[in-house]
Specification:
The complex is a heterodimer.
Chain A lengths: L2 H11 L3 H23 L2 H17 L1 H7 L3 H20 L14 H6 L8 H19 L3 H11 L5 H8 L3 H21 L4 H10 L4
Helix pairs in contact in A: 1-2, 2-3, 2-5, 2-8, 3-5, 5-9, 7-10, 8-10, 9-10
Chain B lengths: L4 H15 L2 H12 L11 H10 L3 H25 L11 H22 L3 H17 L2 H30 L1
Helix pairs in contact in B: 1-2, 4-7, 5-6
Classes of the chains: A mainly alpha, B mainly alpha.
Chain lengths: ~200, ~170
């Protein structure tokens, strides 16, 4: 854990509201992102992420005893909170088409001012949408490891610690997740021919 | 003409997957995955968490109290269940018995001394004397020490739970 995180944890244990707030601000995005990808419901994810933070702060003293990286400890609590919810609600039995697709503002987040043409922007948005839809169709344990690996940039060992899985299982999950995503995106028409088509239809600027 | 970098990534990735090149596939997939935006909570999330921390969790507190009470009662019950067995336990500690007896005599003397005071002290002295007399028997003395240990354990558990609750 960084020295700044350690200092904030110490101040939080002394009762500093500012330290609690700062810790939340530092980790709200990655924690929320992980939980939201796991439960596939952004409103519910906000409640679960909040629960995870409240639980973590309630056990802050035990974290100090355990030591290690604060973010990993926090992710582990977020993981357990999401898993508990999934087990209770059996959320993954809900068919995909019964839920709302990721909202339009999802695409708005993708706004890339550096995109040279509107077509590039559209392609990227479409790709992001297709990728998000494909990720949603993965098994929850695959979704989690792929997000931790490729969005949080974590090492396999860290993922194994957070998810409570053997190292070999983590590697297998990541490999299978990638294979499944490749199949899903190919089925959705994002195979090799797509790029050529996109290039051909690109307007001359 | 420049191409969308993510289109390149998806091509490289799918080609690597098809070729079974795990290393290249992971690398290309990592670049492609950047297209997937990080989801963010609504503004004010941090404030809501801090507010939630301030709110007393009455459900959890009452659960803790119930757990502590149940633990104390259980410990006392378990200890009481073992008391009759003490009669069959051969206790061969005469020196300890003598110490207990001396302490009991001292307690009885203290009781008599206090008895010269107020009526309440007389009553207390009678109780103390009775305990002292009873404590002269090694079995009873052992039982009393056992009860004291059980009570201490229950009090320690309660204290631990209360300290934890205050931190939360």
């Amino acid at each position: 854990m960084s020295a700044a995180d350690e200092q904030l944890v110490r101040e939080a244990l002394e009762g500093s509201q500012r330290a609690y707030r700062e810790l939340v601000r530092r980790f709200e995005r990655p924690v929320y992102n992980l939980v939201a990808r796991m439960v596939r419901d952004q409103t519910l994810a906000e409640d679960l992420a909040q629960d995870a933070f409240v639980k973590a702060f309630g056990r802050l003293a035990s974290y100090q005893l355990a030591q290690g990286k604060f973010s990993n400890w926090l992710f582990k609590i977020a993981h357990n909170t999401a898993i508990d919810h999934l087990r209770r609600a059996e959320l993954d039995t809900v068919p995909l088409d019964a839920r709302e697709p990721e909202s339009a503002d999802f695409h708005a987040i993708l706004s890339d001012p550096d995109a040279p043409t509107p077509l590039d922007h559209a392609v990227r948005s479409d790709l992001a949408g297709a990728l998000a839809a494909a990720v949603e169709r993965l098994r929850p344990e695959y979704r989690e490891v792929i997000v931790l690996r490729h969005q949080e940039g974590m090492a396999y060992e860290e993922i194994a610690e957070i998810a409570g899985l053997p190292l070999g299982t983590v590697k297998t999950y990541i490999h299978r997740a990638r294979k499944d995503l490749a199949e899903l995106l190919t089925e959705a028409g994002w195979g090799p021919g797509r790029a050529a088509r996109e290039t051909r239809t690109r307007p001359v600027s | 003409m420049s191409r969308n970098p993510h289109m390149d990534s998806i091509e490289r990735w799918l080609a690597a997957e098809a070729a079974g090149d795990d290393f290249a596939a992971e690398e290309a997939f990592g670049t492609l995955f950047e297209a997937l935006p990080r989801l963010a909570p609504h503004p004010g999330f941090a404030e809501r968490v801090v507010m939630a921390l301030r709110e007393p969790d009455t459900g959890r507190a009452s659960w803790l109290w119930k757990a502590a009470l149940a633990a104390a009662v259980s410990l006392a019950g378990i200890a009481a269940g073992f008391l009759p067995l003490l009669r069959w336990i051969p206790i061969q500690a005469p020196s300890a018995g003598q110490i207990v007896a001396a302490a009991a005599h001292g307690l009885a003397w203290l009781g008599r001394w206090l008895g010269a005071g107020l009526d309440i002290w007389k009553t207390l002295a009678r109780v103390g004397g009775a305990i002292g007399t009873a404590a002269q028997t090694p079995e009873i003395a052992t039982a009393m020490m056992g009860s004291a240990l059980v009570s201490s354990a229950a009090l320690y558990t309660l204290h631990h739970l209360l300290v934890y609750e205050r931190r939360v």
